[in-house]
Write a structure and sequence with these properties.
Layout (H helix, E strand, L loop, with lengths): L5 H10 L4 H11 L1 E3 L3 H4 L3 H8 L3 E5 L4 E3 L7 E5 L3 E8 L3 E8 L7 H4 L8 E6 L1 E7 H10 L1 H27 L2 H16 L3 E3 L2 H8 L3 H13 L3 E4 L2 E4 L2 H7 L2 H19 L5 E3 H7 L3 H9 L5
Antiparallel strand pairs: 1-12, 2-8, 3-7, 4-8, 5-6, 5-7, 9-11, 10-11
Helix pairs in contact: 7-12, 8-10, 8-11, 9-10
The structure holds zinc ion.
Length: 297
């Protein structure tokens, strides 16, 4: 199942109704649409428009592999409303989730650091939309834009903090608080209280046996914090989950707060004229096509 992203779809299908010149003029005057990825929103206006000109809209399909650990990277991704797990591969066999990326971040930050192969796998957990950028243009823009480099450097620091807290969390915290943390992180990035998630997959993500996840999820459900039915996880009591979650959730929140504050500081300047977005985007047909082509990069 793929959720349709609200941004480009609605906009572009509306734009298809009129001739190009007329529709650009109309939307440039009257409609402004959000970029919706915080790292892009933080860029100064001119650089943001330049950056969007190398972006293409992309569908994040549920359970889609964006990166395989060790494989060459062809694209980097800036999620808009989906979210993606970063996975460490252990002994070429087991996977453990070590990070989660949504609209606060990007996938492929290793490219900004000069590496062309991903050290981690990346798997879509929450379907949605993202901006996708080929590695070549991304590196050129990085060389050109000091603001982009500064923003991504800050993001590297935040991501390092999340990776470190994940390692400590897996070692020291119990399953139920870790599950609560995972649900909160997912809700933050999906901007929705519902996720599709099998318990088998959750046991993978948390690196514990399935029976442990089943037991923890049952307890959260009995306490009225979540509802779980046939793979659909629904958050019923967010405050209760926050109280249940391990301290790693608060640690992550503090690390991301600095980034979010910067995005909020630019809030009035984070909306771009629709024409700028459309100029930066491919037609809807190509977008759908691109989502069905090979996504391993
Ligand atoms: Zn923890």
């Amino acid at each position: 199942m793929q959720m349709e992203p609200p941004l480009s779809w609605a906009l572009q299908s509306t734009l298809k109704r009129g001739p190009p010149g007329a529709r650009e003029r109309r939307f440039t005057r009257s409609v402004r649409v959000p970029v919706n990825n915080h790292l892009i929103e933080m860029l100064p206006r001119k650089e943001r428009i330049d950056f969007l000109s190398i972006c293409e809209p992309f569908v994040l399909g549920l359970s889609e592999t964006l990166f395989e650990a060790g494989a060459p990277t062809k694209h980097v991704y800036f999620p808009i409303d989906g979210f993606v797990s970063l996975l460490a591969v252990v002994d070429d066999a087991s996977l453990l989730e070590v990070g989660m990326v949504g609209r606060e971040g990007m996938l492929g930050i290793h490219v900004a650091l000069g590496a062309l192969r991903s050290p981690l796998g990346a798997l879509v957990q929450g379907p949605g939309a993202a901006w996708r950028v080929p590695v070549g243009p991304f590196k050129k823009e990085l060389e050109r834009s000091a603001a982009l480099r500064r923003g991504l450097n800050r993001y590297v620091a935040v991501l390092m903090s999340q990776l470190a807290s994940s390692a400590a969390c897996a070692r020291y915290h119990l399953i139920s608080p870790r599950l609560a943390r995972w649900l909160l992180m997912s809700q933050d990035r999906a901007q929705s209280g519902r996720f599709f998630m099998t318990q088998e997959f959750l046991s993978y993500m948390l690196g514990v046996r399935r029976v442990g996840v089943t037991s923890a999820a049952s307890k959260l459900q009995q306490r009225g914090l979540i509802e779980y039915h046939r793979g659909e996880m629904k958050v019923l009591d967010r405050a209760g989950l926050e109280a249940e979650a391990c301290s790693c959730y608060a640690t992550d929140q503090i690390a991301y707060a600095a980034l979010s504050q910067r995005a909020n500081d630019h809030r009035l300047d984070t909306m771009l004229p629709a024409a700028a977005i459309v100029a930066a985007s491919r037609p809807m047909g190509e977008l759908r096509e691109s989502s069905h082509r090979s996504t391993k990069s």
